[in-house]
């Protein structure tokens, strides 16, 4: 059953990645889009930014398939990404399913079921005289040279029965995952360390033409092997979680230092205070526990922590120390229930750097605090943060909350509750070029690449950052680059499914993109939402050969924008803004009103005058209010965007707006159901 579920997820995502989706479009939807393109003066069969520039890019081989799909067919992106969000929703109760789905979003086709991963290990351990001793044997060759490692194991009375076996199974699976990890990283230079990677990839401190440059090393990772090892590790951790949740446990307190890190088992129910360095496997059952994670050794590559019951606190003051961070390795932190507090700095709370990381919190009202590169962040790997239906608080400054860099895919999934996502402006950690007194947020659904123009010319394509919130009245606050944003051939997606939500940011937000990026925000449901942008290039705004899409399905909504957005393309992008219905109000602060369906070019007299530049605005129902200076926009009307060269009818000035009553021009969910009505039981 579990394997079939994963196979279905892969099949569903496979259809999302295909460049052609077979479906019967509603005639009204097709007609509206056709009319909009006619009013804009744009070709009906070519709505993407210049394809040759993208395909001839020096970073073509680094572009992830899902990103390329969105760039190739922008007007189909809301349907495809809506289906992706529904696949994530269907997998919310399965951590292995979510990890596999995240891998599929990265273009990886590896599907190791729990049975495939664990059945051979179970057979071996059942045949052993002591499964625990057998499960540790793979570490013996890893002991320091010249030393004989003979672990002091608890007796059967001290660690009895099935608990002993389940722990042994996790440790044996770690050995199996270690083999996958070695395969995944085999082509990387031997001297590559976590410290060097953090300096380059997280702090951005790159020296000219370093011998080991993470940008040139990214293609050397065998990402399929990396995913396979993580699938095995997550499957066995989930199995251990089910076991401790369903069975009364003996009171056990056992610790062991191994060549791969520390083992800690405590099922006494005490309130423990841990100071852990290099935790390999930690199981704590019961009690309100306090975990402090000390600096991790460069050689420590695998960590699993499972805490069952209690209101717990997890803290670290150094990057990459908590078990849910992974550098050149794997990390899992799984807390089953309780009101928990997570406190970290850089690279924490589901953060992967040339690795794979997972944080699962199964219940309660939780608080997540970090500075950056956290709360589902990935470069050269995969990161998943799955929280619960409680009222959660996520706070950071930069690169967090569903943020991915080159060859990374990061997913933050929150199933429900009234949540608050904050990317703070203080302290100022990474000044934005647009607003130097604001942080570059690069989060809340952000995918970014690296522009090497100002350094050595070594640019990289971006990753895929996903934030999906399934229910609740939520609040999103950010600065620059956030909330469904793409940068430098990266894809960012924010999907909020219902509730009355509030969004605020400064620049490049809410379905925005720059430099061949793709940014998408889908607000599904009938909530009454508030969107506040203090500055520019937001709410369906595409700059420099990018794709930007904003869709609000329904509700009485309020939009406030400084400048350039609400369906505005700049420098040959494709921008789409759609409000599906309700009595809405629109405010634009700038007197020029570069908004509500328009396409703009900063410099004329070059070849870009012939490239497509498409900005579309649609409000599909209700009685709406528009800014007085935006003279074209009004109720029950359609209009063409402004043109500097009207007599030439340039493709680079293709803009249009529509206010009226119509269906959404594309589906945001599945068009069919299971089983089909004609075949359903009578």
- Output mean pLDDT: 94
**Measured distance between first and last alpha carbons:** 26 Å
Shape: elongated
Please, how many domains? 2
- Strand-residue proportion: 25-35%
Q: Total number of helical segments?
A: 12
Q: Please summarize the sheet with the most strands.
A: 16 strands, mixed
* Alpha-carbon Rg, integer: 25 Å
**What order do the strands of the largest sheet run in, or round the barrel if closed?**
1-2-4-6-9-13-17-21-25-29-32-35-39-42-44-43
Low-confidence stretches: 1-7, 15-26
Describe the model:
There is one protein chain. The protein is α/β, with parallel strands linked by helices and 682 residues long. It folds into two domains: 1-90 and 484-682, no CATH class; 98-143 and 154-388, no CATH class. The protein is 22% helix and 29% strand. The chain has a 16-stranded mixed beta sheet with strand order 1-2-4-6-9-13-17-21-25-29-32-35-39-42-44-43, with helices on one face. A hairpin with a 2-residue loop joins strand 1 and strand 2. Helix 9 (161-184) packs antiparallel against helix 12 (223-246). The longest helix is centred in the N-terminal third of the chain and has 24 residues, at 161-184. The protein starts with a helix and ends in a 23-residue tail after the last strand.
Characterize this entry briefly.
It contains twelve helices and 44 strands. With 682 residues, the protein is α/β, with parallel strands linked by helices.
């Amino acid at each position: 059953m579990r394997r079939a579920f994963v196979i279905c997820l892969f099949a569903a995502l496979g259809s999302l990645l295909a460049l052609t989706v077979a479906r019967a479009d509603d005639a009204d939807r097709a007609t509206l889009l056709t009319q909009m393109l006619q009013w804009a003066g744009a070709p009906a069969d070519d709505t993407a930014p210049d394809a040759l520039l993208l395909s001839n890019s020096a970073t073509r081989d680094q572009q992830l398939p899902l990103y390329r799909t969105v760039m190739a067919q922008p007007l189909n992106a809301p349907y495809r990404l809506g289906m992706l969000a529904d696949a994530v929703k269907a997998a919310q109760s399965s951590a292995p399913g979510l990890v596999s789905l995240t891998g599929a979003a990265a273009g990886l086709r590896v599907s190791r079921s729990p049975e495939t991963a664990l059945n051979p290990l179970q057979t071996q351990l059942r045949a052993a005289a002591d499964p625990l001793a057998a499960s540790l044997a793979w570490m013996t060759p890893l002991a320091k040279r010249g030393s004989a490692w003979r672990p002091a194991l608890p007796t059967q009375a001290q660690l009895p029965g099935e608990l002993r076996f389940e722990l042994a199974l996790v440790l044996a699976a770690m050995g199996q995952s270690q083999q996958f990890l070695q395969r995944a990283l085999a082509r990387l230079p031997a001297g590559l360390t976590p410290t060097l990677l953090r300096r380059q990839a997280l702090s951005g401190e790159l020296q000219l033409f370093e011998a080991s440059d993470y940008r040139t090393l990214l293609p050397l990772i065998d990402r399929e092997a990396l995913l396979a090892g993580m699938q095995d590790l997550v499957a066995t951790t989930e199995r251990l979680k089910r076991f401790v949740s369903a069975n009364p446990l003996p009171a056990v307190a056992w610790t062991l230092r191994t060549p791969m890190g520390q083992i800690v088992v405590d099922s006494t129910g005490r309130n423990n205070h841990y100071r852990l360095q290099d935790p390999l496997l930690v199981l704590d059952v019961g009690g309100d526990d306090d975990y402090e994670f000390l600096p991790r050794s460069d050689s420590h590559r695998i960590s699993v922590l499972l805490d069952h019951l209690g209101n717990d606190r997890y803290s670290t003051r150094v990057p990459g120390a908590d078990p849910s961070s992974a550098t050149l390795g794997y990390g899992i932190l799984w807390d089953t229930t309780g009101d928990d507090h997570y406190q970290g700095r850089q690279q924490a709370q589901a953060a992967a750097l040339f690795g794979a990381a997972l944080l699962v919190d199964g219940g309660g009202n939780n608080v997540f605090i970090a500075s950056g590169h956290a709360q589902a962040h990935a470069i050269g790997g995969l990161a998943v943060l799955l929280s619960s239906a409680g009222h959660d608080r996520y706070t950071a400054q930069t690169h967090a909350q569903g943020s991915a860099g080159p060859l990374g895919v990061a997913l933050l999934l929150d199933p429900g509750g009234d949540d608050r996502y904050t990317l703070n402006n203080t302290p100022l950690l990474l000044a934005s070029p647009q607003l130097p007194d604001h942080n570059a947020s690069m989060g809340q659904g952000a995918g970014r690449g690296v522009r090497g123009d100002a350094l050595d010319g070594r640019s990289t394509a971006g990753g895929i950052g996903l934030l999906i919130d399934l229910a609740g009245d939520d609040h999103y606050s950010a600065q620059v680059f956030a909330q469904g944003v793409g940068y430098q051939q990266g894809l960012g997606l924010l999907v909020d499914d219902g509730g009355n939500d509030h969004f605020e940011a400064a620049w490049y937000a809410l379905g925005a993109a720059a430099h061949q990026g793709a940014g998408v925000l889908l607000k599904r449901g009938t909530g009454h939402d508030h969107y506040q942008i203090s500055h520019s290039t937001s709410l369906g705004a595409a700059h420099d050969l990018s794709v930007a899409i904003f869709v609000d399905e329904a509700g009485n909504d309020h939009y406030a924008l400084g400048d350039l957005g609400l369906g505005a393309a700049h420098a040959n992008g494709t921008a789409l803004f759609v409000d599906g219905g309700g009595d809405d109000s629109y405010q634009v602060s700038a007197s020029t009103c570069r908004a509500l369906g328009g396409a703009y070019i900063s410099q004329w007299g070059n070849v870009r005058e012939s490239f497509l530049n498409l900005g579309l605005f649609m409000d599909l129902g209700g009685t709406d209010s528009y800014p007085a200076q935006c003279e074209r926009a009004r109720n029950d009307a359609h209009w063409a965007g402004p043109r500097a060269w009207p007599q030439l009818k340039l493709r680079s000035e293709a803009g249009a707006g529509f206010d009226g009553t119509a269906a959404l021009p594309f589906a945001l969910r599945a068009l069919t159901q299971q089983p089909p009505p004609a075949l359903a039981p009578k």
